[in-house]
TrEMBL record:
Coiled-coil region list: none
Protein name: Murein DD-endopeptidase MepM and murein hydrolase activator NlpD, contain LysM domain
Molecular function as annotated in GO: metalloendopeptidase activity
UniProt cross-references to InterPro entries, sorted A to Z: Cell_wall_metabolism_enzyme, Dup_hybrid_motif, LysM, LysM_dom_sf, M23ase_b-sheet_dom
Record carries keyword Metal-binding: no
Every LysM domain range: 23-68, 74-118
Keywords for the protein's UniProt record, in alphabetical order: Hydrolase, Signal
Source organism of the structure: Marinitoga hydrogenitolerans (strain DSM 16785 / JCM 12826 / AT1271)
Record has Transmembrane helix as a keyword: no
Domain of life (superkingdom): Bacteria
Length: 274
């Protein structure tokens, strides 16, 4: 019995060490989420990550409380088959920086369930700033734009975007610099964010969480959501769709940079990066 108690403490300890401490902030009159983000010097997307219901709110009210993390980091739980370099790629980040921040001496020694802190400022570091439209995630392309046999309805349907699969909870970065025009929960698209930039709309669908608010200007490479499988979906992925301002979809490959702009070499159909 005593041994089991000690074992429980040993298991519980790392979780406590790695969970981010939070405090509450009471909304003041005259506050907007952007103002609060500036005041607390924390990215807006992190505030919404901790208070996900605020992604859909049109108004915020003085007196209501927000949960704010003391450190602007995203916690990533190590899964079977992960390596530090793979994790770094999915955050468009740098493995050595993540190792240093988490005090990891040997990057080959990660354990399943280990919680890594990924500072927000490290996310998107390797994003290509030299192209107009970037890959929003680093994952596997599982479905192209055009006619296909629908994976759920098993009939021929037009696929209005491309699907890129990767693990639940990983960051989705804005492919463009533009204005957030919609953040919604839809039966088909699940939780999605729609951004207007230049002559196009860009839609990122099936998120587990949207981390942007309507009216916000987001920069290319900024965190706008997390990977999920909401709506009509067979697994965690992002459906990335580009539309003209007349709401007609076009093939995202017409705008995305080629594979040569991927920040990592193509392994199978893995890509992303830029
Ligand atoms: Zn799709």
């Amino acid at each position: 019995m005593r041994n089991r108690f000690i074992l429980l403490i040993l298991i519980a300890l790392p979780l406590l060490i790695f969970s981010v401490k939070t405090y509450t902030y009471t909304i003041q009159s005259g506050d907007s989420l952007e103002k609060i983000a500036n005041k607390l010097n924390i990215p807006l997307s992190i505030i919404i990550d901790y208070n996900p219901e605020y992604a859909y709110k049109k108004y915020i009210y003085a007196g209501k409380k927000l949960i704010i993390p003391e450190k602007p980091v995203i916690i990533y739980e190590v899964k079977s088959g992960d390596s530090l370099s793979y994790i770094a790629k999915t955050f468009f980040s740098d493995a050595s920086l993540i190792a240093e921040y988490n005090n990891i001496k040997n990057p080959n020694l990660l354990y399943i369930g280990q919680k890594l802190e990924i500072p927000y400022e490290y996310i998107g570091l390797s994003f290509n700033k030299n192209v107009d439209v970037s890959w929003p995630v680093w994952g596997e392309i599982t479905s192209l734009y055009g006619w296909r046999i629908h994976p759920i309805y098993k009939e021929k349907r037009f696929h209005s975007g491309i699907d890129i699969a990767l693990s639940e909870g990983l960051p989705i970065l804005s492919a463009v610099t533009g204005k957030v025009v919609e953040v919604k929960k839809d039966n088909g698209y699940g939780i999605y964010v729609k951004i207007k930039a230049g002559k196009h709309y860009y839609i990122f669908a099936h998120m587990s969480k949207a981390l942007a608010v309507v009216g916000e200007i987001v920069k290319k490479g900024e965190l706008i959501g997390r990977i999920g499988s909401t709506g009509i979906s067979t697994g965690p992925h992002v459906h990335f769709e580009v539309r003209t301002l007349a709401e007609r979809s076009i093939d995202p490959f017409n705008l995305l940079p080629g594979f040569k702009y991927a920040h990592v070499p193509i392994e199978k159909h893995y890509m992303g990066g830029n």
